[in-house]
């Protein structure tokens, strides 16, 4: 289950990932709190999230092209250092009471650095373990991220009461030192190198042309978009169910959030046990979670809804891990950065569209019906993806030349039947 931890480089990477994830979730809590304190507006919080997501949609492909051409370690060190400076700047803003405009500016800059950060971080993470253990590393990474989320939100609540949002930003700034130290400590001679993109295959247009010819990846991206947009926005639906049909209030929402977090850890453990995270695992998990999403809309009580949420959260992690594994292993080394950037852009677009869409559906047709409709849509998308992938596989098989069986010496050729 933990075979990726056999690699020294990955142990360094995993430890820094846990520390950094904890700090990141502290900053999420602190930033939301700071914006609410400054403006008193939930809309302003949404704008802050939007400002961080837009740069990924605009600059993701360019960042991927850079990751396919430039050395990865210097890129990661530069972006992590910039993250550190931005987090420290937020701490100063929180202490001095600067304007909301400055907070939005930092949000945009943070999104910009994150856009530049994603592809090189993804490629370097693949190099610390190699193809054989990549799926296991991604599964363990989801466990560390979930653990970091739980620690960050719980510790963040305590620290915020002691020192306010500024303390959370300061802790997050220090957490980037863990990543910088890990990257510096990685032994380059034990990395699993990837091909660098040659000049004729470099640039964003070359990446788009490559993706256009990779129909299998396009199908996976389309499925991921649907599952993430209508099948994953449980922060919206859990809150709506708690205050609406379940009549559980804030306490119920807290319970559901905890159950969901536990489910993500279970999903990471399940994915880590899989020897091979193939398309069958991805589609199977998608079918199960989509069906369970429909069932969740029929849940009559808090405990029943929580019981359905648990496997949904676990399935979501299995889907993400299998998707990430296939996207990396099924793409060319010298195109990996641009493929990862495309995947991040799809996820960002799905999140930006899905939240408002699911919220609107919950308000207009009721949250229970919205869950049922979303489950059906996700289920149909999974079946359509299965059919498309089968067609692609059959087309590739038929396009391969038939194997030629060598004849033994002295054999006469068999005449073709007419």
Automatic annotation (TrEMBL):
InterPro entries according to UniProt: MFS_trans_sf, TM_effector
One GO cellular component term: plasma membrane
Source superkingdom: Bacteria
Keyword presence, Transferase: no
Transmembrane segments: 12-36, 42-63, 84-113, 158-186, 217-234, 246-270, 277-295, 301-319, 340-361, 367-390
Membrane topology recorded in Swiss-Prot or TrEMBL: Multi-pass membrane protein
Subcellular location: Cell membrane
Coiled coil: none
Keyword Cell membrane: yes
Residues covered by region (Disordered): 399-418
Keywords associated with the record: Cell membrane, Membrane, Transmembrane, Transmembrane helix, Transport
Name of this chain's protein: Putative MFS family arabinose efflux permease
Organism: Pseudonocardia hierapolitana
